[in-house]
Amino acid sequence: MSRNVGTVEQVVRILIGVVLVGLGLSHILSGTLAIVGYVVGAIALVTGFVRYCPAWAIFGVNTCTTNQSR
């Protein structure tokens, strides 16, 4: 599995994930919106940490520079 998420995108994904999960945990988001926030936040965190996004692979997008991809 090669990397397809660049450094800047990785930071943005992790920040978005932390914010969305934090909003759910602090009860700013509630009900269905909180569940959606948890799911989207978790996906953003996982794809940010592993630096691989299956959706980007399907569409052929690669934001990683050539020396960063494995």
Poorly predicted segments? none
The number of helical segments is: 3
Q: Estimate the global geometry from the Cα principal axes.
A: elongated
What would you report as the Rg, rounded to the nearest angstrom? 13 Å
Structural class: mainly alpha
Number of strands: 0
Question: What portion of residues belong to β-strands?
Answer: under 5%
Q: Average pLDDT across residues?
A: 91
Main sheet: strands, sense, barrel: none
The span between the termini is: 8 Å
Q: What is the chain-wise order of helices and strands?
A: HHH
Helical content class: 55-70%
Polypeptide structure, described:
The structure is a single chain. The chain contains three helices and no strands. The protein is mainly alpha-helical and 70 residues long. It starts with 6 loop residues before the first helix and ends in an 11-residue tail after the last helix.
In summary, what is this structure?
By secondary structure, this protein is mostly helical. It has helices at residues 7-25, 32-50, 54-59.
Topology:
Blueprint: H1 7-25, H2 32-50, H3 54-59
Helix pairs in contact: 1-2
Key features?
mainly alpha; 70 residues; 3 helices
